[in-house]
UniProtKB/TrEMBL annotation:
It comes from Paenibacillus validus. Coiled coil: none annotated. Residues 10-474 form the FAD-dependent oxidoreductase 2 FAD-binding domain. This is FAD-dependent tricarballylate dehydrogenase TcuA. The keyword tRNA processing does not apply.
Length: 504
């Protein structure tokens, strides 16, 4: 149990992923005494952030602005890069487009307008960035980036968590492991303390403010069934086993307003044989399968069921996981031929990847559990429907199909060059979209829309940003933006409260 003399803090942060660590660093920078609580042991710290591939979406003017956080890029290297502009308007429009206009405009504008400022703040605090090669293709001697996601953290989420923890240690912030927040104590509608469950018993920490940043309920099977539907029992949990909705429960008990898409989540097609929960010995998002726009997706009845080329994978992969979950056996096959196989993302070539290879489609069908006759008929109909045109995976090339349902709207090549590859996938849930209502500075709002004094939230706990879908890389960016602002707001609140006491 923690020593009694350390049981008073200005700011207590619940969680130890990207959002929580950003909140803790921000609060410390603003002069507060900070405690960070991690539910898991030290070897399993980092929440879902640990399992990401590190891609982080930000608005930017041009390559030169990105080079401010990518100092290793030489002028010669820069001359060989084609970097499309992705400004605040582009980011905002993408967010609104994929959420069908449902994203809370205030929160969306805060995320977008602060994204690059917070990227630079992260860089100043020791986070190392690099170009996201998975978002590029070579063409005419240049590297062409696409999809508005050219930036990632070095060594993926593992590196991000390590770098943020190094900064936490440098700043002298206390971190308690195996410490689960279970209840807020309130007086006159203000946070006064937090109860923490540790292996030795319950500890109560007196505090002026609490920042809840401990994830959604994706690892809680009961809550998944209740809010998402019974079929979600079959989903693989891609990230932390500790994201079981504790923070949401604490916030709602304190009077917070539930907000956002509680029936929606980020889910993707992931390797059929991926671990049932995130394996901390195999981090870095190595099991996902996101090159489907280059190929075709079949259920085991031999039918296609989505438009693989509807948009860049950044804007469809987070919703296609649930489409896989709806299929017989909660699984599907991603099929590719020799034309596109060299262009698949790196995770397809890892030793952990499950795949089948055959010289013909007939042989491939014999290797996998699929209705062979229907599979071959579907491919024949698709091949006949492919239209002529210039194939270009760096843009939405409009090279699609005609006369079949579902169509393939872009990047449609005939599936006719062996060898052929089949990657079996199932649904992997990443994080849930439902959360609590916060204002742009991270204050948690009650059911009347008023701030709950001393209570803040960040990361997956922020409801109202994502509905049914999201633009890839926005989760890490949201965590950093709202974490930074929640930390600063909480520190400001505590300073003001102290002044009020002094002036009484």
């Amino acid at each position: 149990m923690a020593d009694e003399k350390f049981l008073t803090y200005d700011v207590v942060v619940v969680g130890a992923g990207n959002a929580a660590l950003c909140a803790g660093i921000s609060a410390k920078e603003n002069g507060s005494k900070v405690l960070i609580l991690e539910k898991g042991p030290i070897q399993k710290r980092g929440g879902n952030s640990f399992f990401t591939d590190g891609a982080i979406r930000t608005a930017y003017r041009d390559l030169e602005e990105l080079r401010e956080v990518l100092p290793g890029i030489t002028d010669e290297e820069a001359a060989r890069i084609y970097m499309p502009v992705y400004n605040e308007e582009d980011y905002y429009n993408d967010l609104m487009r994929v959420t069908e206009g449902k994203s809370d405009p205030q929160l969306a504008k805060q995320l977008v307008s602060q994204s690059m400022k917070v990227i630079k703040w992260l860089y100043e605090n020791g986070v190392i960035f690099e170009l996201n090669e998975n978002q590029s293709f070579e063409k005419d001697g240049k590297t062409h980036f696409w999809g508005g996601l050219p930036l990632k953290t070095k060594n993926k989420g593992v590196g991000l968590v390590a770098q943020l923890n190094e900064r936490v240690a440098e700043l002298g912030i206390d971190v308690w492991y195996e410490s689960r927040a279970i209840k807020l104590e309130m007086e006159n509608h203000q946070v006064t303390a937090i109860q923490i469950e540790q292996p030795e018993g319950i500890v109560t920490v007196r505090t002026g403010s609490v920042i809840l940043a401990c994830g959604g309920f994706e690892a809680n099977q009961t809550m998944r069934s209740e809010h998402l539907g019974s079929q979600w029992d079959a989903a693989i949990v891609r990230g932390s086993e500790y994201n079981t909705g504790d923070g949401l429960k604490i916030a709602l008990e304190a009077g917070a307003q539930a907000y956002g898409d509680w029936s929606g989540c980020h889910s993707i097609g992931t390797d059929l044989n991926a671990p049932k929960v995130g394996d901390f010995t195999k981090p870095g998002d190595i099991f996902k399968k996101s090159s489907f726009p280059l190929g075709l997706i079949f259920n085991n009845e031999g039918n296609r069921f989505v438009d693989e080329g509807a948009d860049f994978r950044n804007y469809t992969y987070a919703k296609y996981g649930r489409e896989v979950l709806k299929q017989p056996g909660h699984m599907a096959y991603q099929i590719f031929d020799a034309q596109v196989h060299p262009m698949l993302r790196k995770e397809y070539f890892l030793e952990e990847a499950t795949f089948f290879k055959a010289d013909s489609l007939e042989q491939l069908a014999d290797l996998i559990k699929i209705d062979k006759e229907q599979f071959l008929q579907t491919i024949e109909a698709y091949n006949q429907a492919v239209q002529e045109g210039d194939y270009n995976p760096t843009v939405k090339d409009g090279k699609g199909t005609k006369g079949i349902t579902p169509p393939k709207s872009n990047w449609a090549l005939r599936m006719d060059q062996g060898p052929f590859y089949a990657f079996p996938v199932t649904c992997g849930i990443t994080f849930t979209f439902g959360g609590v209502h916060v204002n742009p500075t991270g204050e948690v709002l009650d059911k009347e829309g008023a701030p709950i004094s001393g209570l803040y939230a960040a990361g997956e706990m922020v409801g109202g940003l994502f509905y049914e879908n999201y633009p890839g890389g926005s989760g890490l960016m949201s965590g950093a933006v709202f974490g930074k602002f929640a930390g600063a707001s909480a520190s400001r609140y505590v300073r003001g409260k102290t002044k009020d006491i002094v002036n009484q």
